[in-house]
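Hi Q.,

Before the meeting this afternoon, I wanted you to have the zinc ion prediction in hand. No need to reply - just skim if you have a minute. The sequence and ligand are here:
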Amino acid sequence: MQKPKTIYLQDYKPSNFEITSVELTVDIQNRFTLVSSRLSFKKREELRGKKLNLDLNGESMELIGLKLNEENVPSDRFQVSADRLTLFNLVEDEFILEIQNKIDPSSNKALEGLYQSGPQLCTQCEPEGFRKITYFIDRPDVMSIYKTKMIADKTQYPFLLSNGNRIGSGDLPDGRHWVEWEDPFRKPSYLFAMVAGDFDVARDTFKTASGRKVDLEIYVDKGNLFKTGHAMESLKESMKWDEERFGLEYDLNIYMIVAVDSFNMGAMENKGLNIFNSTYTLADEKSATDHDFQNIQAVIGHEYFHNWTGNRVTCRDWFQLTLKEGLTVFRDQEFSSDMLSRAVKRIEDVMMLKEAQFAEDSGPLSHPIRPSSYIEINNFYTRTVYEKGAEVIRMIHTLIGSENFRKGMDKYFELYDGKAVTTEDFVNAMELASKKDLSQFKNWYNRPGTPTLVIRTKQEGDELVMDVEQKYPPTTLSLSEGSILHMPFVVGLLDKTTHQETEHLLEIKKLKETFRFKVTGEVIPSLNRGFSAPVYVDYPFQISDLITLMSFDSDPYSRYEATQKIYDYVLKNELNYLKATGKLSETLESDFQEAFRILLGNKDIDLSFKSYLLELPSENSLTQEMDRPDFEAIHLVHKNLQKKLGLQFQDWFLDQHETLSEVSRFELTPKAFGQRALKNQCLTYLVASGSEAGLRALAHHYESATNMTEEIHGLKMYIASGAPLEHPAIQKFYQKWKHDSLVMIKWFSSLAAFTPKSEALTRLSVLEKDPLFLNQVPNYLRALYLQFSKNNLHAFHDVSGAGYDFISERIKLIDGFNPQVASKAASSFSLINKLDEKRRGHMRSSLEKLVRGNPSKDTFEVVSKFLAQ
Ligand code: PHE
Ligand code: ZN
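Predicted structure with the ligand bound:
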């Protein structure tokens, strides 16, 4: 097999040609779709008068016509290959190219370009899908005005949608019709979109701050209108929020969202015509969990916010992806914080960052938020580019303050509106507005890996002396000498006796620094408050100090962090005990018991927050800090600690569970989210206790559940406690929900993630043959295979290697039609460098089979990085 080509940031060159306007006619016919494209080209200023070749990207299509300035192009003046069309020796500085080509959306299972989702047709062009629709210079710095005319059968496709404003429509013979759209804003090809189909439409309007009326339309499968309310509310909230917080108004008179079932990602910010995975659009109380509701709000916000950060100002090249994604994630996080509970949102975001991004960054796929090379750009839509990227933006926000940050955003739009720019440009705008020197800060864009801050303190009289040292994991990239990170680090000092505290924002800029603080008594440091920097902190905490922080730290994130450290400490002791004695410990340490009791009794914290404080670190996060993790032992110890706590505090959990069952009205408020979260948390401990009372609580919880948050939690508890597939609880769910694909996806996910190891692989093989399992639709593939490999750790990592073989065989199948989903599934193997020899050997042989089988570029890139370990 030929090794795919690597693309380097340092090789960036602007395009020789600009395309000022694009006129597309897309004729959707039964067997294929005919695309006619009329492109106005211009040579770049400096190249006028030169004779140049023109290279256009194009894949999976048939060229049927090519005209240059109205004349057919003779066959010796151009060449077509599998991925491009080249025209030779163009002397004209400006010219018009007319291209006709055929594509076949119904056979497109990669879901890039124009494809079929159920009976509908839709597009996905980011990052490089436009080249599967027609020949084009498919890169984000080539920006054009688009006009799109769509033609199709009127009964099958009554709705024909594209970007911008609808400028005409009409009927044609044979029951066909046409609709024409024009987008007045210049945009890169990746923001182009088209949809054809029959839908139900939810309609509303929004009045902008300057008084313009915007039509809002959400297109969903027939019969799903009742599930669009929350998405519509979220859209209006997003529009208002961006006006208030950033002074940014929507710029077209129509905003459309289309929900489809087949989609590779969450959603896509195409100008004026977002296309969403239906998971992030449709919800009602019966079928959606509280997390679904929160995710919908966040994703609707995210895509809406892209209209300014992404669309109006876009990326020069794909290495700059974090320019739009990091910034837009930061914006959607802020939006959710303002809509819900800021403290809880921060805990959730950091939890996810630590579990998923820190893991990514400590394995073979580690890369800086602005990568310097790639084989397949689709592999870089990562936690690092998105979520660590958002943390980097958040650090700028912390360093310069929110007022300056707002000025910096204004500056960014003043300088770059309508342009395709770089991350440097963004930081420069922030520097100009705040007058703060961020040159050293820019190192965050180049450095992969999570740094550690090693912190040691000593008290000298009325002074606390704090030594801070930065440590970086080794990197294979060459970084310039002195590329030391600059970061904000928020520290609280909590007086041991009075519990009074002071707070300090430190700026860390050197490898080793010492800070001094005046104190009046003995203090406990509360470190990295609010998770001000995305780093590990190494500090020798005493358990008693953590217990004090857990009870009195006024920073909710640090308080959460302190409880997690306590659990970590206990779990690790129990693991050691198991290793030493071969038995699970049966006792609870008295200090720990006391701390847990205090937590349960705490009445003045919000219930969501409380349920997070009660949550043990996941098995995933426990394996992370370990070299050669013993998955089986971790699983057993985790369950055992839950069981002991469940038994010890059974009365409290029972009582609380019952009290929370009295809430009857369904509301989407932080308070109601908290009540349901805590009720579920109580059930977890009750079921773990294994007591009769616990099992009765489960039956009652499940039978009486009137919302999906509680119902699915009950189902998971049955599955995790080993219920067979035929168990009435599992079958009842199936019968009740078989008509609702989004709920069935939850059923498949829960079974994949929670089925005990002894049954897991057999069960997966049964599930993938279920008639409701749609084996070409990404949501289902992720539900079964990724839930298994990422959340059912002890089963996937079984020493026999059977889990690895199973998943690698599935990856191979998926890679045959959808490389993006296959390569995401391949990331299941990212723990390879942390495994013991036996497991690593099994993993290697599974991976080697995959590379030998002629994989896609996407899968090749990921798998070869694992094998290089
Ligand atoms: N740009 C989309 C987002 O972050 C994600 C996406 C990438 C969707 C590539 C589809 C394909 O909102
Ligand atoms: Zn995005």
